[in-house]
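Record pair follows.
FIRST:
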Amino acid sequence: MSERLTLNHSLYAEATPAGAYYAVASPTPDPSRRLLAGILKEGFAAPVSEERLVAWSGAASVDQAMQHVYRLQKLDFIQGTDAPSPPTDVSLEILLPNLIGNLSESGRALLADDNGFYLASSGFLHEAAEEIAALAGDILALSTRHALLLKNNLNIGSSAWAISDPTGRSELAFYPLHVGSQAFILIIGGTPRLQGEEFVTLVQALSRRYS
């Protein structure tokens, strides 16, 4: 008989950078993505509880919700913390340019919507940002059109695309981010830095606005 999973009710739930990326990497909802979305939006508000986990994940029972939590912990997608990390009070329009600039070693980054318009830019001239955003919209449409080939036939789980140099290093990378019914594309010039708290902050900010 398997041991019953229990919660530490004194801890706050947080998404790791890997968890934040998984939460928005696909438009297809599942209990794990719903649970991560709930943590990103509301995990700071109160210590974790069984009721909140069930509500976030849409699970049919507490045991089922706990199984989702256990899986996400094993994948290092979530973690518990003694103190909450409340979201910034800075508006999204002011926050984005500096925030996305920190996601690239070269400081060159851009956030565009699925219509090919850029919402924020760092390190790119305005004219270049407009053209890159339009390119990103085309890449998102291409990725959507060939999603079944990539996932089912080639078993490629990632939806990111990149333009690389002859050594294989990314010169311009495109990361689709799906928040609720809205899709964005994060474009990184040079080496990306998505394994820090800045990326979690970006996903949190978008989730609070659009999810």
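SECOND:
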Amino acid sequence: MKNFIYQSQWGWLLSGVSLGIVFILTVALVKPIGVSTQFVILDGMVWDFFSDQIVVEDNTAKSGYSSPNAYLNKSGGKYAKNVANPINYSFIFVFAMIAGGFIASRLQPAGESKDNLIAPLVWTDRFGDSQAKRYLAVFVGGFLVLFGSRLAGGCTSGHMMSGMMQTSLSGYLFTLGTFAVAVPVAILMYKGEK
């Protein structure tokens, strides 16, 4: 058995207050949190690897870079610059989230069932205990969330968390739309659950 230091589960109040403090500090000290753009940057990096014409240095552009791709060329080539120089706060933040999730999974309390980590009980009661089915559902759900985030011009952390904290109208509209879809979908998916 591995010798981990186990974390205790926080209640909703402590978790919410802690998240609020982290967001306030991040916005005050660095910039608003948002991560879905970094997937566009990653796509651009892969594209740039195969084509040296997708991002080029351009002294006339505000950022010093431009792209024939209209999306990467937005805001004076800001995204094109991030593709050319990806090691920045936002890109590292994405990898830190992945590392943080992994570390949190390793610090799971000793009494927590490892089966419940693969699929919550509410899922297995409704859809069975197939790991393949669970992973497929998570992948499809993640894809839809990411697609919707880019369509909306920002993700749940950018629009909902950072946006609402800054009293952004788009943040409130995004949150309203998210819950207007999420609640009925959850009710339909788990219909008949006791």
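COMMENT: The first helix runs from residue 12 to 29.
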